[in-house]
Design goal:
By secondary structure, this protein is of the alpha+beta class. It has two domains: 248 residues, 2-Layer Sandwich (Beta Polymerase, domain 2), CATH 3.30.460; 59 residues, no CATH class. The chain is built from eight helices and seven strands; from the N terminus they run βββαααββββααααα. Strands 2-1-3-7-6-5-4 form a seven-stranded mixed beta sheet, with helices on both faces. Helix 4 packs across helix 5 and helix 7 runs antiparallel to helix 8. The radius of gyration is 35 Å and the shape is rod-shaped. The chain starts with a strand and ends with a helix. The model has no long low-confidence stretch (mean pLDDT 80).
């Protein structure tokens, strides 16, 4: 799917989804070409229009910093990741941007909310997006706002989990797995934001962007710094919750071992008496008819009560 945003005869920004109309436009007419899961023919036509080669998905996913941002004499190539939240796990979607003579070309393979929002804003507030540079900054600004929303939702999830740990007695290995998943999601959000920070830092070193976008970029970089601090705090909080869960699990295990130890100690005196009178030797009170059993049972009960009293007095129970 392709959307071409261009200026009509009244100098108003509108869009078309017909790729062949690129042949009727000049560089001054087009401001944004948005390619969503493009086909080979669509990419070829855009490459012929721009006079440059579009990046592949493998290039967009390249980890090397030199491949994430690069410039030529006429174009800027930017690769970044957009985080997509899921019911449990998050995933990264690679997006490529090419800025060529004031025209923005975006290449993605999934529908992303940031692009839908900025497309609606362009049609409503056209004067705010006169060139592809302004549209690109708008996309990143919207993306950072969505990342902030995800961090806020993550904080609420951590709050709920913290209250659950405080009020629930059923703390087990599943709770540790939940904590681990929250930690993974927090780290993915942080990596996503740091990637935007590196990208904007590279833009500040460029002389190709118009000066009127640097004000917004300064605000974005400050927002990113605050979000990084927030994710660091969230990760520290999750680490604290993880230690709390481990402590509660250890307490439960110690309580169980205490019960077993107490039962074993209580049964030691009766076991000793039963062992003595179970020996195959002559012992007192073994020749009577039934008093031997009563006397032995009484001795076991008395020894059990004595052991219980001693443990109780020593506050070992």
């Amino acid at each position: 799917m392709i959307k071409i945003f261009y200026k009509d005869e009244a100098n108003r920004i509108t869009y078309t989804e017909e790729i062949q109309k690129l042949n009727d436009f000049g560089f001054d007419d087009v401001v944004w070409i948005d390619l969503c899961d493009p086909e080979g023919d669509e990419k070829r036509i855009v490459e012929e229009f721009l006079g440059t080669k579009l990046q592949s998905k493998a290039q967009a996913e390249e980890i090397e910093s030199s491949s994430r941002y690069s410039e030529s004499e006429t174009s800027i190539f930017i690769n970044t990741d957009f985080l997509i939240p899921g019911p449990e796990e998050y995933q990264m979607e690679s997006v490529s941007f090419i800025l060529c003579e004031g025209i923005l070309v975006s290449i993605r393979h999934l529908d992303l909310r940031s692009f839908v929002d900025i497309q609606n804003k362009i049609l409503i507030h056209q004067k705010l997006y006169p060139t592809g540079y302004h549209i690109f900054v708008g996309v990143i600004e919207n993306r950072i706002d969505l990342d902030a929303d995800m961090i806020e939702l993550m904080s609420k999830d951590i709050d709920q989990f913290s209250r659950k740990i405080s009020t629930s007695k059923d703390v087990n290995e599943d709770s540790l797995l939940d904590i681990n998943q929250l930690q993974e999601n927090t780290m993915m959000i942080r990596e996503n934001i740091v990637d935007k920070q590196r990208m904007i830092t590279a833009i500040f070193r460029s002389d190709k962007f118009p000066h009127d976008v640097y004000g917004k970029l300064n605000v974005i970089i400050k927002d990113i710094s605050s979000l990084i601090n927030h994710t660091n705090f969230s990760f520290e909080r999750l680490d604290y919750l993880q230690n709390t869960i481990l402590g509660l699990i250890n307490l439960d295990q110690n309580r169980i071992m205490k019960v077993f130890t107490f039962v074993s100690l209580l049964l030691m005196p009766p076991t000793l008496i039963a062992s003595i009178y179970g020996m195959n030797v002559k012992l007192p009170q073994v020749d009577s008819q039934y008093w031997d059993f009563i006397i032995l049972l009484s001795l076991m009960i008395v020894s059990l009560l004595i052991a219980f009293t001693i443990f109780k007095h020593k506050k070992m129970l």
